[in-house]
Amino acid sequence: FQIISSPIFTQQKGNDFEMSDFYNVVANNRPVRTYYDDIVIVSIDNCSRLEIAQLIEIINYTEPSAIGVDVFFTYCSNEDSLIVDIFNQTPNLVLAYDAFEETNTYFAPDLKTTTWGAINLIAKHTSGIIRQFQPQFNDSIYAFSAQLAKLTKPQAFDKLVSRNKTLETICYPSQEFEIVEGISILRGEINLLDLEEILHNKIVLLGDTHNPFDQHQTPITSNMPGIIINA
Predict the structure, then answer these.
(1) Which of 145, 147, 205, 210 has the most CB atoms around it within 10 Å of its CB?
(2) pTM, rounded to two decimals
(3) How many Å separate Cα 48 from the centre of its chain?
(4) What is the CA radius of gyration of the chain?
């Protein structure tokens, strides 16, 4: 009963089911978890774009190995000049790019050193299960996660590229990442020294963790945030 009532049997659309989904669920229920200490997620739910810029400025002080921002800035605001300045002063910054629509942040031309990574998730159909990711979309656009690997772990990136695979399987089971609330950082609820210990030399990913429009089906859950999938 517990197996048949699993989301992989009850929430699939059409015939979007693979036997590997079953094994993913079983593996994910193991008591042993893998904690990735080199990746930290900063939740930016309900943060304004100015607050996002302020967060990046604070995070910069902790000297992370890279910062990935899973956000599109699609309209003008009065704070944009400040945001552009902060982004241009941020080393190893990766911003979101839509490879399907070929669009990105509207002030992209003003960003001189920023790297762009495609955040497009691959499924058989709309609202389908995300089992794989596409490492490369054209000669210059790589996946968001691949670009971060290129900046921080070039050997791993070279190994990925050398496989020359159109799609790569995502390993979901038993993976855990530390999540820090961005609002807590902005309110000073986390001591700067403690924050430095959490973020120093880490890959820091900024994105929504509770946005209902960025929840996706995976083999182990029906509502995984896009930023977790990228992690």
Answers:
(1) 205
(2) 0.85
(3) 19
(4) 18
